[in-house]
Design goal:
The complex is a heterodimer of chains A (291) and B (251).
Chain A: H1 2-32, H2 39-57, H3 60-83, H4 91-113, E1 118-119, E2 128-131, E3 134-139, H5 140-162, H6 164-174, H7 176-181, H8 186-208, E4 212-213, H9 219-231, H10 237-258, H11 263-277
Antiparallel strand pairs in A: 1-4, 2-3
Helix pairs in contact in A: 1-5, 1-8, 1-9, 1-10, 2-3, 2-4, 2-8, 3-8, 5-6, 5-8, 6-8, 9-10, 9-11, 10-11
Chain B: H1 9-13, E1 19-28, E2 31-41, E3 46-50, H2 57-65, E4 72-77, E5 80-81, H3 87-93, E6 95-98, H4 110-118, H5 123-136, H6 138-143, H7 153-166, E7 171-175, H8 183-200, E8 203-207, H9 211-217, E9 220-225, E10 228-234, H10 235-240, H11 242-249
Parallel strand pairs in B: 3-8, 3-9, 6-7, 7-8
Antiparallel strand pairs in B: 1-2, 1-4, 4-5, 9-10
Helix pairs in contact in B: 4-7
The chains are: A mainly alpha (291), B alpha/beta (251).
Chain lengths: 291, 251
């Protein structure tokens, strides 16, 4: 029972990061109908930028802030330069462009920073927390991860719900044609959506990268984040977070009871099962058809 | 925006018009739908655009609102040429288009749909404008916090018109506002359009399949056939022109 609690809590902690990646994917999917296969690579690059800042200045939090800002800018730049030209073209074009970008960014990181593992600091201590003699299976750093991801998701949800820019973003995502007729500058909204996704992705990168960073270090996490987004139905930010947490817990049970080598296998199996039996995700209602 | 035509007589003649479409040629890809269409709408009037299916009515509205880029010609809003601008910029300039098939954003609430329109106004005006709109459209006030997808067809039509008004347009383009509505509701919509003209001196371009009821409320009628204007006259004259009616309007 204690073991079960431990696996559940550490699963939720791992799931927080999948949730963040999934959230970034959903933001982009809703706005531009593009699956951003380079989301992980973008986060990898912003983590390298953070590491450079941390090593130069000695301040972890300055590096953290720079990574988020870099993610915001990178997202906007990617949308304007490589995604904008393929919008309105067959969906496969965007898929190929974003996979191309993944390869480009990982190659670029290899050239700039080398392909060796670099050690990357945690935000907080990774000593296991316990209540009395009962180990909880989570650390102070896990708590920070949870607060950061849930906080970011909450802020994002509030911004979408209560601000003018949020309303314009939602209108663009639901019906860009109508939004345009109401004077919404749709192009800017798409750029903003990518920028926000870049920011959330960079946050995920900072949280998941430690202890080691290399140009491919986000690949496996990206696959799991993608799975979480699909479980959540790709359309819903809430679904993305729920999908991430669910996946984290399930994979952690698999890892805990069956051995850690089974994690990636179970992750892919979960993706396949959802795509086969519930392709709209576990949390989506019947898809609302536009009239 | 290249404008190969010298500003000449046309501009002077249209100086008083709220909306003047001058010699627009437009279409989709290689298919040319409009062949040199000109329409002039005086401020505070209703202009009915009539014609059979495929005459180019909707294409004309899409050329005005920027959804398609005219190959040539001008779209003057109070003398400013908007031809070739993007739809969002045309909307910001003061032309509101209520497209056919309604276009409520079903996932947003009624209030959020309206708020989208209100965002084009200065912040200070929004609350008062919203109150005014809810007063006029009582049914929307009741359904304020419901998803717009839950509204009936007639209510949705009210919402899209209200939302267009929320942008405080100078010109309102209405494409088939009565499409798919019950006859009683159609009467209500037409009455509303008339009221809008009379109360706020809005300039309205009304595209209607139902020529008889459109001419009943319009000041001017324009008949399109195969992408060209075949008649432009006072609405009351068009309604009584038997040959024209039988030939192009089918009533």
């Amino acid at each position: 029972m204690v073991e079960f609690l431990e696996f559940t809590l550490s699963g939720l902690a791992a799931g927080m990061v999948y949730a963040a990646i999934a959230l970034a994917l959903v933001l982009i999917w809703r706005g531009t109908r593009v699956l951003n296969y380079s989301q992980g690579a973008m986060a990898m690059l912003t983590s390298y930028i953070a590491l450079t800042v941390i090593n130069e200045t000695g301040s972890y939090w300055l590096g953290f802030a720079v990574a988020l800002a870099a993610g915001l800018i990178l997202g906007a730049v990617v949308e304007r330069t490589v995604i904008r030209p393929v919008t309105g073209k067959p969906p496969l074009n965007a898929v190929i462009v974003s996979i191309g970008l993944l390869i480009l960014l990982e190659g670029l990181a290899g050239v700039l920073y080398g392909s060796n593992n670099r050690s990357f600091p945690f935000a907080y201590s990774v000593n296991g927390l316990s209540i009395g003699s009962v180990a909880l299976g989570i650390t102070r750093n896990d708590l920070f991860t949870a607060v950061a991801v849930l906080g970011a998701a909450g802020l994002l949800a509030a911004a979408f719900r209560y601000t003018s820019a949020g309303l314009r973003l939602r209108a663009t995502a639901f019906n860009a044609g109508v939004a345009r007729l109401l004077g919404v500058r749709v192009g800017r909204m798409l750029t903003l959506g990518w920028a926000l996704a870049g920011l959330i992705g960079a946050l995920a990168g900072m949280l998941v990268t430690p202890p080691l960073l290399n140009p491919n270090s986000m690949d496996a996490i990206f696959v799991l984040g993608f799975t979480a987004a699909v479980i959540g139905g790709l359309e819903s930010p809430v679904g993305a977070v729920a999908g991430g947490l669910l996946l984290g817990v399930v994979l952690n049970y698999a890892s805990g009871y069956l051995g850690s080598e089974s994690v990636n296998l179970f992750g892919l199996a979960a993706l396949l099962l959802v795509l086969m039996f519930r392709p709209t995700g576990l949390f989506s209602a019947a898809p609302a058809r536009r009239v | 925006m290249s404008d190969s035509r010298p500003a000449g007589r046309g501009q002077l003649a249209n100086a008083a018009a709220a909306l003047a479409v001058e010699d627009i040629t437009a279409g989709y890809g290689a298919v040319r739908v409009l062949h040199g269409v000109s329409v002039t709408a005086a401020p505070g009037t209703i202009t009915a655009i009539l014609g059979a299916n495929g005459a180019g009515k909707t294409t004309l509205l899409r050329a005005i609102d920027g959804s398609i880029r005219p190959a040539s010609g001008r779209v003057l809003l109070d003398g400013t040429d908007l031809a070739g601008r993007r739809p969002e910029e045309v909307a910001r300039a003061g032309i509101a288009h209520v497209p056919e098939g309604q276009g409520v954003i079903t996932e947003l609430t009624v209030a959020e749909n309206l708020q989208l329109g209100l965002l084009l106004r200065p912040r200070a005006d929004r609350a008062a404008a919203a109150a005014e709109i809810y007063q006029r459209f009582g049914v929307l006030a009741e359904r304020k916090n419901l998803a717009a997808g839950t509204l009936s067809g007639g209510e949705r039509q009210m919402l899209v018109i209200a939302r267009a008004l929320a942008t405080r347009p100078r010109v309102l383009l209405l494409d088939e506002p009565s499409l798919g509505l019950a006859p009683k509701i159609v009467m209500g919509v037409l009455h509303l359009i008339q009221q809008l003209r009379d109360e706020s001196s809005l300039t309205i371009i009304l595209v209607e399949q139902n020529a008889r009821s459109a001419l009943a409320i319009a000041d001017t009628g324009i008949v399109l056939n195969l992408g060209a204007v075949v008649a432009q006259a006072r609405a009351s004259d068009l309604a009584t022109d038997d040959a024209l009616r039988r030939h192009y309007l089918g009533f």
